[in-house]
Specification:
CATH topology: Rossmann fold
Radius of gyration: 18 Å
CATH architecture: 3-Layer(aba) Sandwich
Number of strands: 8
Helix content: 10-25%
Shape: elongated
Order of helices and strands: EEEEHEEEEH
Structural class: alpha/beta
CATH class: Alpha Beta
Strand content: 25-35%
Number of helices: 2
Length: 203
């Protein structure tokens, strides 16, 4: 289910025109996940989320689309508020925090001592027009959970979801991005906590 009120454009206060330039892009952001399975355990270990890696076509603030599998394009005058991988990392952190199931979660940059490190790759993050005039949004993230300090990979999984936009307009397309990423974030949080706790119990 898409989050309510997805993501009004943030550029309303910044629409002064500049001579020789067109209007500024509409800026969009997505929302973290806040609801998880009730039997998800509470854990006392600490987790660091490394920034997701992504190829150059997705490591951008531009909102991507595909009309065929071999070509990537971008919507005109529409951008994310941050580079897509950095935005996704922020939403990961917020989703883990919202779960209330983990004692400490942070980014690599803050120097938190970690029991586990989550490595991720943003592989799909675009609207697709393969099936007709109304796009579907595909979000796919590959994650690996690394146990510290021996840096052993204790789990790996691919998380993917498709959400059909209600119509071919930016508010509905952004809502579909929010829904697809939300489904992936929920599975990511639950998988990470369950996999980490299983490997903690085995230690």
């Amino acid at each position: 289910m898409a989050a309510a009120g997805p993501l009004a454009a943030l550029a309303a206060a910044c629409e002064l025109s500049v001579p020789g330039q067109g209007p500024p892009p509409n800026l969009y952001r997505l929302t973290p996940k806040s609801r998880f399975r009730e039997d998800l355990p509470r854990v006392d270990w600490q987790l660091i989320l490394e920034p997701p890696i992504a190829d150059a076509s997705l490591n951008t603030t531009r909102v991507a689309l595909q009309r065929d599998p071999t070509q990537l394009e971008y919507y005109a005058r529409s951008s994310w508020t941050d580079l897509a991988p950095q935005m996704v990392q922020t939403l990961m952190v917020e989703s883990f925090e919202n779960s209330g199931r983990i004692i400490s979660i942070g980014r690599e940059a803050i120097g938190l001592r970690a029991d586990f490190v989550l490595k991720s790759e943003l592989r799909e993050f675009q609207a697709e027009y393969f099936q007709g005039a109304t796009p579907q949004v595909r979000v796919a993230i590959n994650v690996k959970l690394v146990k510290m300090p021996r840096r052993a990979i204790v789990g790996s999984t691919n998380l993917e979801h498709l959400s059909l936009a209600e119509a071919d307009n930016m508010p509905d397309i952004i809502a579909a991005f929010d829904e697809a990423l939300g489904k992936v974030l929920r599975r990511l949080v639950e998988w990470t906590i369950l996999t980490g706790e299983e490997n903690t119990q085995q230690a």
